[in-house]
Amino acid sequence: MLFNSLEFILFFPIVCLVYYLLPGIKGRTIFLLLASYYFYMCWEPVYALLLLTSTSITYISALCMDRFRSRRRRKISLFSGIFINLGILFFYKYYEFAGSLITDFFSLLNIGIEIPRWNVLLPVGISFYIFQAVGYAVDVYRGTIKAEKNFVVYALFISFFPQLVAGPIERAKNMLPQFREKHKFSYENFDTGLRLMIWGFFMKLCVADRVSTYVDAVYNNYMEHSGVSLLLATFFFTFQIYCDFAGYSLIAIGSSKMMGFTLMENFHRPYFAKSIKEFWRRWHISLSTWFKDYLYIPLGGNRVGHYRHLWNLFVTFLVSGIWHGANLTFVLWGSLHGLYQIVGIEKNRLLPKINVSKRLHAVFNCLVTFVLVMFAWIFFRANDLHSAFSIIAKIFTDRGPLFTGEGIPSLLLGFMCIGILMLKEIKDEMSIKVHALNAENYWVRIISISLFIAFIILTASFNGGAFIYFQF
């Protein structure tokens, strides 16, 4: 069930209404759990068993860690839960990819060994809910939180439908206490949540899906298009990936807010970052902080020698690339961001400070960061490494005519929606208030929101389909 589908438009109001009508916390928790599993089973019912398996394993693992006093037995419980969960993730997401690499390696050595392959459908959201479950197990082991003894509450934490299939990857210390509260209907929460959802739909339908047609047409047939067209498609994809994923996050956060739950912020205007380091503090915040807490810091973080610190950074971003998918393009994308981080650290050590105004320096750094991020997105979007390097070569050498796709009006509409997005982001970045959106007058706000919904309906592209990050 997609957020941008008629089914969800019907499903969510019913869930929200029933949730507030139910009198007790226990009944609400059970209802939300059933609704979340129904939501997930709308894709492939059988994969709900995987969700239940991951939930049960980490639930039992955490209870064992809470019960055992021996550090050795606690470690066994922790690593058993992590190993089984990551094993499930590896089989469904990476087994075929790893088998192909191993088979190719043996063929180069003239050894006739072929790894058997299974064509299995990747369960939607598996990377997200397994990382959430693993993070919970580690937190229990560290003593950050106590193991949740109520299985229904814990199962809801793992499967909560707004953020189940594409995040944010939540933390138990944030969500578990909220599931024990009886939330009362709040006009303020409803208003805030609704506006977040509306803006999320704008990002998805009017920006991401609007420009995706051009991006797909160019990238899927890159040999037929000029470097200028490929550069424009890369620029469009830079906003497509952002608006597609951030749009989902806003709909998830907004729908949760309308029911009284507060999810963590997942994007914070990342294209205003003035360095790659800052970019990752603003982009997919729930994943970047997950890797920081559960991989980078355990490796030693920056509390080790200089070169070991650089290695820890590189490994963290390499794994981040692998997390995104079983393709060498993602590996190179993650490695490139790791190299960006290393160069950023070394640049400050080797280069002298330039005496220019702070504002000019900030704008320059922002533009450089945007270009570096946009360049890396080429590897993320390309179908394979050969295509990625060919696209880069054509961008720098081919000065053919611009491909107009569905026509100049369609391109202009795409630019207009990106412009509206950036005006909103500039407003938020500079903390500029707009009277119509912040007016105390109830009717002014209703009319403003209604006009914006009408604008979304008129300019939206309804052919985009699933959110990009569902495949991860």
TrEMBL record:
<dbReference type="InterPro" id="IPR024194">
    <property type="entry name" value="Ac/AlaTfrase_AlgI/DltB"/>
</dbReference>
<keyword id="KW-0012">Acyltransferase</keyword>
<keyword id="KW-1133">Transmembrane helix</keyword>
<feature type="transmembrane region" description="Helical">
    <location>
        <begin position="45"/>
        <end position="64"/>
    </location>
</feature>
<dbReference type="GO" id="GO:0042121">
    <property type="term" value="P:alginic acid biosynthetic process"/>
</dbReference>
<feature type="transmembrane region" description="Helical">
    <location>
        <begin position="230"/>
        <end position="254"/>
    </location>
</feature>
<feature type="transmembrane region" description="Helical">
    <location>
        <begin position="151"/>
        <end position="169"/>
    </location>
</feature>
<feature type="transmembrane region" description="Helical">
    <location>
        <begin position="401"/>
        <end position="422"/>
    </location>
</feature>
<keyword id="KW-0812">Transmembrane</keyword>
<feature type="transmembrane region" description="Helical">
    <location>
        <begin position="76"/>
        <end position="95"/>
    </location>
</feature>
<dbReference type="GO" id="GO:0005886">
    <property type="term" value="C:plasma membrane"/>
</dbReference>
<protein>
    <recommendedName>
        <fullName>MBOAT family protein</fullName>
    </recommendedName>
</protein>
<comment type="similarity">
    <text>Belongs to the membrane-bound acyltransferase family.</text>
</comment>
<dbReference type="Pfam" id="PF03062">
    <property type="entry name" value="MBOAT"/>
</dbReference>
<dbReference type="InterPro" id="IPR028362">
    <property type="entry name" value="AlgI"/>
</dbReference>
<keyword id="KW-1003">Cell membrane</keyword>
<feature type="transmembrane region" description="Helical">
    <location>
        <begin position="115"/>
        <end position="139"/>
    </location>
</feature>
<feature type="transmembrane region" description="Helical">
    <location>
        <begin position="360"/>
        <end position="380"/>
    </location>
</feature>
<feature type="transmembrane region" description="Helical">
    <location>
        <begin position="313"/>
        <end position="340"/>
    </location>
</feature>
<dbReference type="InterPro" id="IPR051085">
    <property type="entry name" value="MB_O-acyltransferase"/>
</dbReference>
<keyword id="KW-0808">Transferase</keyword>
<dbReference type="InterPro" id="IPR004299">
    <property type="entry name" value="MBOAT_fam"/>
</dbReference>
<dbReference type="GO" id="GO:0016746">
    <property type="term" value="F:acyltransferase activity"/>
</dbReference>
<keyword id="KW-0472">Membrane</keyword>
<feature type="transmembrane region" description="Helical">
    <location>
        <begin position="442"/>
        <end position="470"/>
    </location>
</feature>
<feature type="transmembrane region" description="Helical">
    <location>
        <begin position="7"/>
        <end position="25"/>
    </location>
</feature>
